[in-house]
Target: Outer membrane protein assembly factor BamE
Amino acid sequence: MDGLSQRLSTLGGVITPYRIDILQGNVVVREQVEALQPGMSRQQVQAILGTPLVASIFHADRWDYVFTYQRQGQPVQRRVVTVWFDGDRMARAQADGELPTEREFVAALQVRRPTGEAPPLQASDDQLKAAQPAGSTARAADAPAAPATPPAGASYPPLEAR
Model:
């Protein structure tokens, strides 16, 4: 996308469209990998790391835990933890790079929200009067409610069993 179309799609570069954070895969933190020990069964590994994202029938002795995190304005984070088995027992585990601790991961997820006083959630009487259409003097809440009558010939089942 060239510079002109980028500026037009963001209203002159002032307003950008909102893009949601995208989390995909298994989040694996440093404490989980440190808890793994060679000789653990597949069930024990699964209890610590969860169900693997990739468990191929062609690589029955390998589980891959893949995680990607995409947030607007930041580079995509991608982490892979691979666990190898010898039969039903874990042989080794390897992570592609430094894994964050649980505390570091949670801190990275927190979104900075504007601090300040929350706006009022109810309009004042003056604001309601200003919002009334021209020529209307009565508020809708002051108007009597029309009685609810069923259509002629309508038959409804009772609300409660007798």
Notes: The longest strand covers residues 77-86. Strands lie at 22-25, 62-70, 77-86, 89-95. The domain at 19-99 is CATH 3.30.1450 (Beta-lactamase Inhibitory Protein; Chain:B, domain 1). The radius of gyration is 29 Å.
